[in-house]
TrEMBL record:
GO terms for molecular function: 4 iron, 4 sulfur cluster binding; cyclic pyranopterin monophosphate synthase activity; GTP 3',8'-cyclase activity; GTP binding; metal ion binding. Residues 72-85 have a biased composition (Pro residues). This is Radical SAM core domain-containing protein. CDD domains: MoaC_PE, Radical_SAM, Twitch_MoaA.
Length: 723
């Protein structure tokens, strides 16, 4: 640690550390700890092009920096030879770092180029922040993010390769992007995530200021040092609870101790001067983890971290409901009940969160209010999905494939390391030829102008703001883990067959371009991947055990013989399928104080919602012991959700909801020969009875109503949902 501090202080004296004007300590990387300047690692595109080779932007000049804002180092006029694949894969080749520019601050301001018109929309929003999803995979199954069984993954061929991500990153940085964030899925599960960050980090010599990561932190502690060395400047860690058992319920996986190791390592590196901007993202869901808000606030008392509370947002497959959304104002009121002197902090115009701080606390609080107070007017973000689609809005469902356009230079095939090396060499060879006004210097990719034109069209189509709260929940969008509409998969699959058999080496010679894809609009007639994967019929015909059609006769009770005796139905001849059922009911209170006590966790018997949830899950597993004619089945999933509902006598319940209510939904699944409707009903019933038992001392006039099955899927009868 002493050597680290000496190396850090030496670099500060030499003036080689450059950081934006913030209250944080100057930042250094692990490579600088070892005395190696990361800027001296040659980037694959150094020597291939200069920024001036890209199309000039006709946009109006960007505003001049504030007087006290430090300017980043201008790109070096020296061109360094690109490293070979062996250099990138093996020992690092250290190149001399060019001396800093001697031009004055006024000269640099005067010579500053206007911001790219390609990245400026029709509302004058300049998009200098790029988020890149580097994988669809994740090692958790968070409740608000994806179904427990996961999501259909794209074939590897459909995903962006490392060279393609680097090419796109270089293109955007050349146009003015100063911040790149790598996301997923979970980015740390990508095998080459560190080499990828090393190549993107080298873009700091060309204007990139921040390289950040959004992660669940499960395996980050094993890679963090290498990432800091590669140029990592910020970490957003997704963590929704500080309780290890609640963590396992919310993520459906164990691993809280591993996340704690990551948090401890970040603080340790920051104490050594790494200057990692550390934020914890907490998605708040009513009745699930809203009681965690105050413990997270207390965490900022002595820790230099910004905890950001995020309003629960709707994405495909995350079972969003308005009743589960805990609003920004509710969070603020809850925090001020404990910390009344909470103060609002001044923020940057492009901040996604509203920043607060408790006086005397080291850390800060943030609120991401996408649902109740959007920040669309200052949005500066663009997203590239792992399958290469550009999204200009997180909640938008129109996308354009930049991957397909980029691969046109390789005959539609993925650009792997071999193809990339040929392209790079061709570009270097082209620079040895005399340039002319009609033959500009090579760009990052031979068709960069086409890429920029398509990107510019997409940015210009960006709306002034996304849909409102009442519309978002009904819009089709990617699951959060993918940010990807399944309808695109079949379209892409036809494109793979079109290019089968074309080797990357020959594709560079054969210039047959892949079809140029336009904007992807849901509902265009493409076959959904989820529809292709569906194995269940939707027929309503019934067959007798002897195989004859019984659809013309009236309904029969299957558990009663012809003589009227009860018996257990034989399922020996049935085919095992995946079966799912959801049951719901509601507990109505007569006294509004009950709901308040539940929310504040002040009931004498303890955590009502937590205990009821566990009771429901346990009851589902014991259903055959309670219901005599139920078959024992091996459940693969059992989930009970309890959502508090505020009192409202005009909500369509005929005045029942005069004191508030708890809505209960139980979902049970199995891979078996019989359905799980009874298990779902038992789970919902037990959860409701537990709520009654724990609250009856305060409210003896509670009413449990509406127990019913609302969804059943699987088996010969297929899918059924209550209208």
């Amino acid at each position: 640690m002493g050597a680290v501090a000496r190396c850090l202080s030496q670099r500060i004296r030499l003036g080689t550390l450059h950081a934006p004007a913030t209250n944080r300590t100057p930042r250094t990387t692990s490579s600088q700890f070892r005395g190696v300047a990361s800027a001296s690692v040659a980037h694959p595109f150094q020597g291939v092009q200069t920024f001036s080779a890209l199309p000039a932007s006709p946009a109006s000049p960007a505003p001049s920096p504030a007087v006290d804002e430090p300017l980043s180092q201008p790109p070096s006029p020296h061109r360094l030879l690109p490293p070979s694949p062996a250099d990138r894969g093996g020992s690092r080749v250290i190149r001399p770092t060019p001396p800093p520019s001697s031009s004055s601050r006024k000269d640099r301001i005067r010579e500053a180029r206007p911001f790219s018109d390609f990245l400026t929309d029709n509302f004058d929003r300049q998009h200098d922040y790029l988020r890149i999803s580097v994988t669809e995979r994740c090692n958790l199954r968070c409740l608000y993010c994806m179904p427990e069984e996961g999501v259909p993954l794209s074939p590897q061929r459909e995903l962006l390769t490392t060279p393609e991500i680097v090419v796109l990153s270089s293109l955007f940085v050349a146009q003015g992007v100063t911040k790149i964030r790598l996301t997923g899925g979970e980015p740390t599960v990508r095998r080459d995530i560190v080499p990828l960050m090393q190549q993107i980090g080298a873009l700091r010599a060309h204007g990139l200021r921040e390289l950040c990561l959004t992660t669940n932190g499960l395996s980050l502690h094993r890679k963090l040092d290498s990432m800091v060395e590669a140029g990592l400047t910020g970490v957003n860690l997704s963590l929704d609870t500080l309780d290890q058992w609640q963590y396992q319920l919310m993520t459906r996986r164990a691993g809280f101790s591993a996340v704690q190791k990551t948090i401890d390592r970040i603080f340790e590196l920051n104490r050594a001067g790494a200057g990692i901007k550390f934020k914890i993202n907490c998605v708040v869901m009513r009745g699930v983890n809203d009681r965690e808000i105050l413990p997270f606030v207390e965490m900022t008392r002595e820790k230099d971290v910004e905890v950001r509370f995020i309003e629960y947002m709707p994405f495909d497959g995350n079972k969003w409901s308005k009743g589960k959304m805990f609003s920004y104002q509710e969070m603020l009121d809850l925090i001020r009940s404990r910390y009344p002197d909470l103060q609002r902090e001044a923020g940057h115009k492009n901040d996604t969160s509203k920043t607060f701080q408790v006086p005397g606390f080291v850390g800060k609080l943030g609120f991401v209010t996408s649902m109740t107070h959007n920040f669309c007017g200052t949005c500066n973000r663009l997203r590239i999905t792992s399958d290469g689609n550009l999204k200009v809005c997180l909640f938008g469902n129109a996308e354009v494939s930049v991957r397909d356009i980029l691969r046109k230079v390789n005959g539609g095939e993925p650009i792997d390391e071999a193809a990339f090396e040929l392209l790079r060499q061709a570009a270097v060879d082209g620079m040895n030829q005399p340039s002319s006004p009609t033959d500009p210097s090579p760009l990052l990719a031979p068709n960069s102008e086409e890429l920029l034109n398509v990107i510019g069209m997409a940015v210009k189509r960006k709306k002034e703001k996304h849909a409102g709260l009442g519309e978002l929940e009904h819009m089709k969008n990617r699951p959060m883990i993918l940010i990807d509409p399944p309808a695109t998969i079949q379209r892409h699959r036809s494109r793979w067959h079109h290019h089968i058999g074309v080797a990357p080496s020959t594709s560079l010679v054969n210039k047959g371009p892949a079809p140029l894809s336009g904007f992807l609009v849901p509902g265009s007639g493409n076959i959904s991947a989820l529809q292709q994967l569906r194995l269940f019929t939707s027929t309503s015909r019934h067959l007798r055990q002897d195989g004859k059609d019984d659809s013309t006769k009236g309904p029969k009770l299957t558990h009663v013989t012809s003589s009227g005796a009860a018996h257990m139905v034989s399922i020996s001849d049935k085919t095992p399928t995946k079966r799912v059922a959801t049951a719901k009911c509601t507990v109505y209170f007569s006294d509004p104080a009950v709901l308040r006590l539940i929310k504040e966790n002040q009931m004498k018997k303890g955590d009502v919602l937590g205990v009821a949830r566990i009771a429901g899950i346990m009851a589902a597993k014991r259903t055959p012991d309670l219901i005599p004619l139920c078959h024992p089945v091996a459940l693969t999933h059992a989930e009970v959700e309890l959502a508090p509902v505020e009192a409202n006598i005009e909500d369509g319940t005929d005045g029942k909801n005069k004191g508030g209510a708890i809505e209960i939904a139980a979902t049970v699944a199995c891979d078996g020969k019989t359905g799980v409707e009874m298990e779902a009903l038992t789970a919902a019933s037990a959860a409701a009875l537990t709520v009654y038992d724990m609250c009856k001392a305060v409210d003896k006039a509670m009413v449990i109503e509406g127990l019913r099955v609302v969804l059943k899927d699987g088996g010969k009868s297929g899918r059924w949902e209550m209208p």
